[in-house]
Specification:
single chain; alpha/beta; Rossmann fold; Nucleotidyltransferase, domain 5; six-stranded mixed β-sheet; 23 strands; globular; DNA-directed DNA polymerase activity
């Protein structure tokens, strides 16, 4: 039976062998709901078994633990039912297809030779509690792998939780965020609040928040119940007095037993090498071919598992794609939290081929037959394989086609024999080395494929087809017309889940695809795709094309059913070739400017470091947050410091330094300046030069088309959208982006587009009219809010109005505004209140938008795009953040839609006008062009005309242009 007594002696330091206690029962249900129905060859359901197995392997791969136990519930009844028979009585029975999987999952643990623990009369949580306390008594750190709130009472010095759903550690801070009290008070809070799921009664009418307040005020449940008569609120006082016994019973129910008679000593909970034959035999019975292949690939010559770790290798240690695949099986994070569990859909439009044919095409005759088949089909899935992921540096290795669901081929065009030495290890020598495999040479293959790829009557479908367009364009092949399954998924669920092909195959088709790591290996043994044997390359690449075509059949129906055809057909699909071309253009970068800036920043870093050392009174590593924290809070005795519950070190993040700098602490401002220079140097001036393409002399960023919830493009490799522009040093970086001789850089951006959008979406007549009349919107707002006539407006009053204008649409708080303006929080709050009083339509819009997000899970832009809002159904800080997102997403998303429409129209408009400007970059509301000197004026006028006329939102759009020899001059 649980006792209320706490350990009387201090625990030893947690520096022994870490112990990981896995909540196996929790894993089972998460696995069951993460994967669609799946049967093994004899018809037994095994979707939860497969999910559990993948979860287990991934967990072990990432933890690399020596001591692990998988702990299960035994039977539903346990000692709690002896004194409260209704405990968990209302829980539904497990689904019919899950029941037979419980025993098989226990077999999985045994097949991997891991400790499997369960004990009749006790719950898994009780065993976890007991083992955790025993291990800590031995000086061992403990990690409980679970997201179960009932286990949070165990969090302590040396005991933490790992939430496998969010891949997030849970310590005292996270427990406090959840319950409003420290871990040692969680039981008291749960006893008051009760739990309807487990049928823990609690005190009627008291929730978690109220319970936390009461326990914080009175110290404990017993103290509260003893002094219940002192409570001022009559209703609450009466409930506590009348239900005191229920509260005490509830505490006995929720408190975990820490002295259970464990069936296996804690010292024996170890990870042991599995018996390979037994493991493979068990996997074979389940029909888990993909897992068998991974395990076999890691079997060493002596029959053991290489590095003792089929578990590590099969989970894709070192392979990001494989980790993503298994993470989806582990915790379902690829699915919307509010959505129903994914299942294999039975819709009639989902193709389910009776036979799968994935063939190798290595002759011109066979390729010509596939081209004829594609021309006859009218819709063909196309995919390319390359030796790299950067289009402007990668080489085309092979092409795959699919002409109908289940039928696909792979056409190798530049494979080499895997035994050929890598360049730099003796050099490539095809004369004396191994000959390349039999295949159609690249040039001939493209000649044969061109009539299909360029045929206007054949739709070419790809998944992220932008990459494929670029690979073909490098060889003079213009692929059109095109369709993109990634973007079809994106317009339906932007922000709701991922849109990678592997995830969508699982979500919509119930198919687990071959991972990239399976064919190219991982880590240092990774090979490029041109060295993959043709049988493996064919299985992988042909499947990609096949799955893409199957997804197209599903998603074209879903886009129609979801009423997202207009967004897809007018914005997303026509944008693909525009962005593909823009990336290939690239932007010219001056290495000398980068070098000079890097030297300047290095000198400034040295100067700042010396100044910081003087202020600190000694030398230390300015880049070390730990040492900086010791200087500020241990040695300088500054107030306001906070220590991390996980590391015990002082926090020195930007928010901490900003607060201290605002108080006039010079060293904090100096450190912030030092960090800014260090980031500019490491992120831009030192690395941009390395990212210049040697063939073009330009930097070619990649724009992700389906990465944000709002429809915005995002830039990577390198990220050119995040170059700081609010500081002089950040703006200097743009000096390195220059025009080619005889050209100029032209920057054209929308003026105050988000304010114009919010004025229209919220229906604010005063702001709408101001924009129509061309009035200075910030001066007008200042006049309206602060009752200052326009002819008496000062720059300071206008600055305050500008901060509120832009801050309001991002959900700025009075505290945030006070810091931005350097005023008291109360004064800032009064400004915001006055703003809403003057423009009540805005507050009404915000409340309406939050309600719509909570009801639907998404909000819409003016053009109809859905922006899904994660966390809108949650509570506390997570919900507040989601509500701010809900307010801003339609505004930011509409701005993204508008500039996309302008980008789509501009290439044709420039060509029709005989102008030769090239679009180079899109940075949120700005477009960057390289323009011949003689065409600057005409181009400026045309681009502004197209951007301003991209769409009619009811309020005029205004685009402003700047021109110079560099981006800095033009902006």
């Amino acid at each position: 039976m649980p006792t209320d007594s706490a350990p009387s002696t201090a625990l030893p330091p947690a520096d022994g062998t870490p112990l990981y206690l896995v909540d196996g029962s929790g894993f089972i249900f998460r696995a069951y709901h993460a994967l669609p129905p799946l049967n093994r060859p004899d018809g037994t359901p095994v979707n939860a078994v497969m999910g559990f197995t993948n979860m287990l392997m991934r967990l072990l791969a990432e933890l690399k633990a020596d001591a692990v136990a998988i702990i299960f519930d035994s039977k539903r009844l346990n000692f709690r039912n002896e004194f409260y028979p209704d405990y968990k009585a209302h829980r539904p029975e497990p689904p019919e297809d899950l029941r037979p999987q419980f025993a098989i999952i226990r077999e999985a643990v045994e097949a991997f030779n891991l400790p499997r623990i369960e004990l009749e009369g006790y719950e898994a949580d009780d065993l976890i509690a007991t083992y955790a306390r025993q291990a800590r008594a031995q000086g061992r750190p403990v990690t409980i792998v679970s997201s179960d709130k009932d286990l949070m009472q165990l969090v302590d010095d040396g005991i933490r939780m790992l939430d496998p759903m969010k891949n997030k550690m849970i310590g005292p801070d996270e427990v406090f965020e959840k319950f409003g009290v420290a871990p040692d008070k969680v039981v008291d809070v749960q006893a008051l609040a009760g739990d309807s799921v487990d049928n823990v009664p609690g005190v009627p009418g008291i929730g978690i928040k109220t319970a936390a307040q009461l326990i914080t005020e009175y110290g404990s449940l017993e103290a509260l119940l003893e002094r219940a008569g002192e409570i001022k609120q009559a209703g609450r006082r009466q409930k506590l007095i009348e239900n005191a016994d229920l509260a005490r019973i509830s505490k006995r129910l929720v408190k975990l037993e820490e002295n259970a008679p464990v069936p296996v000593p804690v010292e024996e909970l170890k990870v042991r090498e599995p018996d390979v034959n037994r493991l493979l035999s068990w996997l074979g019975v389940q029909g888990f071919r993909s897992i068998i292949a991974k395990v076999k690939a890691e079997i060493a010559a002596d029959g053991t598992l290489a590095d003792g770790a089929a578990l590590h290798a099969a989970a894709g240690d070192g392979g990001e794609q494989q980790r993503r695949d298994l993470r989806a099986a582990l915790d379902g994070r690829s699915y919307a939290p509010s959505a129903a569990p994914a299942v294999v859909r039975a819709d009639a439009h989902i193709p389910r081929p009776d036979k799968v044919e994935h063939v190798l095409v290595d002759t011109e005759e066979a390729l010509a037959a596939w081209v004829a088949e594609g021309l006859e089909a009218g819709v063909v899935a196309v995919d390319t394989e390359t030796d790299g992921l950067t289009p402007m540096r990668a080489s085309l290795v092979g092409i795959s086609l699919s002409t109908r669901p289940g039928r696909a081929c792979y056409i190798p065009v530049a494979h080499i024999d895997p035994s050929t030495p890598k360049e730099g290890a003796g050099g490539l020598d095809f004369g004396d080395g191994a000959p390349p495999p039999k295949q159609v040479p690249l040039t001939r293959a493209l000649d044969i494929l061109r009539p299909l790829l360029e045929h206007p009557g054949v739709l070419k479908v790809g998944h992220n087809i932008k990459f494929d367009l670029q690979m073909f364009a490098k060889h003079g092949v213009t692929v059109a017309p095109i369709d993109d399954t990634m973007l079809r998924s994106y317009v339906i669920g932007g922000g709701r889940h991922g849109h990678g092909m592997d995830e969508l195959a699982q979500r919509h088709l119930g198919v687990t695809t071959i991972s990239f790591d399976e064919v190219t290996r991982t880590g240092k043994s990774r090979i490029t795709f041109d060295r993959v044997p043709l049988d493996k390359a064919t299985a992988y690449a042909a499947e990609d094309a096949d799955i893409t075509l199957r997804l197209w059949h599903v998603l074209r129906h879903d886009v129609l059913a979801d009423r997202m055809v207009t967004v897809y057909e007018t914005i997303e699909r026509p944008l693909v070739p525009v962005v593909a071309r823009m990336e290939m253009e690239g932007v010219l970068v001056d290495r000398q400017v980068l070098k000079e800036l890097s030297n300047d920043f290095a000198k400034r870093l040295v100067e700042l470091e010396a100044e910081i050392h003087v202020l600190a009174g000694r030398t230390f590593n300015v880049g070390s947050p730990k040492q900086l924290g010791e200087i500020l809070f241990d040695e300088m005795k500054l107030s306001g410091g906070k220590k991390s519950a996980k590391t015990g070190a002082w926090s020195t993040d930007s928010s901490v330094l900003e607060e201290l700098a605002d108080l006039g602490i010079p060293i904090c401002q100096k450190v912030m300046d030092w960090r800014q220079f260090a980031k500019l140097k490491s992120t831009y001036t030192d690395t941009l030069g390395e990212q210049i393409n040697p063939g073009t002399g330009r930097v070619h960023t990649s724009f992700a088309l389906a990465a944000t919830s709002t429809g915005r493009l995002s830039s990577t490799d390198p990220n050119l959208q995040n170059i700081p522009i609010r500081t002089e040093e950040g703006r200097k970086i743009r000096r390195a982006f220059v025009a080619a001789p005889g050209n100029r850089i032209m920057s054209v951006d929308y003026s105050q587009i988000e304010l114009r959008i919010v004025a229209e979406m919220a229906g604010i007549p005063a702001l709408q009219q101001a924009f129509r009349d061309g009035i200075d919107i910030h001066a007008m707002t200042a006049s309206q809010v602060f009752n200052v006539p326009l002819d008496q407006m000062t720059s300071e009053i206008r600055r305050r109005a500008k901060a509120i204008n832009f801050g309001i649409i991002y959900g700025i708080s009075s505290f945030g505004l006070s810091r931005q303006l350097g005023i008291a929080a109360g004064e800032a709050g009064a400004f915001i209140k006055a703003y809403f009083e003057r423009f009540p339509e805005l507050q009404a819009y915000m409340e309406k938008t939050k309600a719509e997000a909570a009801r639907d899970g998404y909000v819409r832009t003016l053009l109809g795009r859905k922006c899904w809002i994660q966390g809108i159904q949650e509570k506390g800080a997570r919900k507040s953040y989601a509500e701010r997102q809900a307010i801003n997403a339609p505004i930011q998303g509409t701005a993204a839609d508008i500039i996309k429409l302008a980008m789509i129209k501009l290439p044709g408009a420039l060509a029709d006008a005989g102008l030769n400007a090239r679009m180079l970059l899109q940075v949120h509301d700005e477009l960057l062009f390289e323009v011949p000197e003689a065409e600057v004026e005409a181009t400026s006028a045309l681009v502004r005309q197209v951007m301003e006329g991209a769409v009619d939102i009811g309020i005029p759009l205004v685009a402003e242009a700047g021109v110079g020899l560099s981006w800095a001059e033009a902006h």
